Amino acid sequence: MAILGNIIKGVINLTDTLTSETNHIEAQEAVLKNLLETAKETQFGKKYSFETILLSDDICESFADVVPYFDYNKINEKWWSKLHKGEVDVTWPGTPSYFALSSGTTGKSSKRIPVTDAMIDAIQSSGIKQVLSLNNFDLPADFFEKEIMMLGSSTDLQEKNDHLEGEISGISASNIPFWFKGYYKPGEDIAKIDDWDERVAHIAKNAKNWDIGALSGIPSWIELMLQEVIKYHKADNIHDIWPNLQVYTSGGVAFGPYEKSFKALLGKPVTVIDTYLASEGYIATQTRPETDAMQLNTENGIYFEFVPMNPDYIKADGSIKKSAPSLTLKEVELNQDYILIMSTVSGAWRYLIGDTIAFTDVEKAEIKITGRTKFFLNTVGSQLSVNKMDDAMKHLEEKFSTKISEYTICAKRFDDGEFYHSWYLGTDLKANKKEVADALDNFLKEANKNYKVARSKALKGVKVTIIDVEKFHNWSDQNKKKGGQVKMERVMKEKKFKKWEKFVK
């Protein structure tokens, strides 16, 4: 009998029973007030008169009126760069203990995003919320005695001046509570290995020594790790090695494009739970099985605003025009794309994280990631978001009975002077390229009226190139780094796309 598991599950059940339903609007207003109170004596707080904002009748409205939008380049140049010169109390009291390195999906050079002790606490609080929500998924008691494989970046953080640097998954894993360390795999020694391939080799070698009940990590790298473990042990699927694997906590990107290829590695179904952890904070987590939408973490150190997704509000570099209106949680509507704006306990203020989301349930504050502002393809008016591209990939998978876990696209002018959408698909599909292009084109015409209009005007057509999915992984390895928080760019500008095509050839 799973005695410990029953005790843990009983505690989760009791805690869930005692916890009342969160009023997310009130929670957000309380978070903003706390952020302003805490930071009012900082350089940023004085510049933008936080004390005066706190005295206003509508703090949310005053905050939006006074403080401008910031993307990473703008806030780093004007504010965070001061931290690297030894200044204190810049955008948050004191100095951050960590900087999260994030190349994201847009380039080789790393962003350095401050991570304060308050943010570590906020991430841990959101992690506890995720654990408590497992009560909703009807998992057996013995699940709570199994080990958890967390595949992130290296926990061997680099010392620099008075702080440590690394990717957010490595920072989070290096701060796991002492009581969790007995469950955590691959363990501290292997997690510190910086080279991703070497780390995975050690995981594969030790895999049969562990009783893994849950996996956590970005889908593309989890898949590669599972493939290596299966290959090393000459197994048919991962359940031959980890028979008690029951849960996969996905994160970083939408799971949809990876669903088919991920399931092919399993021997039996697992519960997939989506999470949304970024370098800027733990944004949302799926809390119930009836939906794959995620609930915003409205109580833990992040205040959210939402800018309606409109091409007129976005500059060419993906940043937001200062005239763009923002909405609070009490003003948003269902099934509308919004650009996500965050203010946090790490001293990010009205910060453009670069993602777009849509609400599936406003009262429960549940969302889905719909794309990236920089991946919103609007050349010649096509107005394609990443979620529409993901839907198109699912359509092709079903139509051609294949798996397409990676893709990228560029709207480029070809030698005939016309614009085409040039797609590269990571798949072993053997179908005729024109047939695939026609199926893709027809689906997008049906799914997006703007795309259909563009195809009747300046967008001449669709071109498809089919390549091995390994090319995408190798591209990430060459241009950034394997594993960790690295995600493949779905949309490329022409200059970057030329480098991509040269690399592929």
TrEMBL record:
* Domain GH3 C-terminal, residue spans: 390-495
Q: Which GO terms describe its molecular function?
A: acid-amino acid ligase activity
| One Gene Ontology cellular component annotation held by this UniProt entry | cytoplasm
Question: From which organism does this entry originate?
Answer: Polaribacter reichenbachii
Q: Where is the GH3 middle domain?
A: 299-363
A Pfam family: GH3_C
The molecule here is called GH3 auxin-responsive promoter
